[in-house]
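Re: the request from the purification team.
They wanted to know what the chain is likely to look like in 3D before they choose a buffer screen. I agreed to run a prediction and write the result into the notebook, where they can find it.
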Amino acid sequence: METESVSGVSERGGQRADVIVEAAGRLFFAPGSVRVSMDDLARELGMSKKTIYRHFPGKRSLLAAVLDRQFAAVERTLVAAAEGTEGQPFGVRVQRFLLAAGSELRRIGAAQLAVGRGDAVLRRYVEQRVDAVVYRRLDELFRDGHRRGLLSAPPELLSEITRGALERLLTSQLPRELGWTAADLLRASVDTVLYGAIRPAHSGTDGQQLRAVMPRARDEEQEVGP
């Protein structure tokens, strides 16, 4: 998608454009916000719509600039998470990356944007940016683990499973129902993908009895019989 961004604004008007983008981000993407107009933004800024349109030709170009800024912040967070786990066990690297990604995507409301908020062009743009900033890095992380012999499952399968879990948890009511935070459930999901949910129930004579462990509440587990 071709979009106007802050970088496309003239250098002379850059500072004012930054102020507009910052206010638009607060107003348009505030939790629980309803449809916000350019008139609302002008009132928030205390300036005329004509001044806003001087920097951004339309609402779509302004929203694209806001998204550019938000995804740049997401990318910085993910790079820091990757650098902070350099040299640590592979499972720790994946877990920290996904927890950082989930937290950042929830912060900017990416899931809601991608499934229906805003117009179709901007929704596609959000999907493209999530794919470029988050999922391509996740894919490479799984491929690296597979190349190093740390994963027995195909990296493509692990990527699809983890993508689905991450996107579902961003909009799910499950954290509230189980009494867990979304980060708790994402951590459990990552552990399940990497290490499996089935483990020996106890050491017996045959050692064959297994159980599947699923979270019910923060400090409880439900046992599913063999």
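For the purification team: The chain has ten helices and three strands.
Please add any questions underneath this entry.
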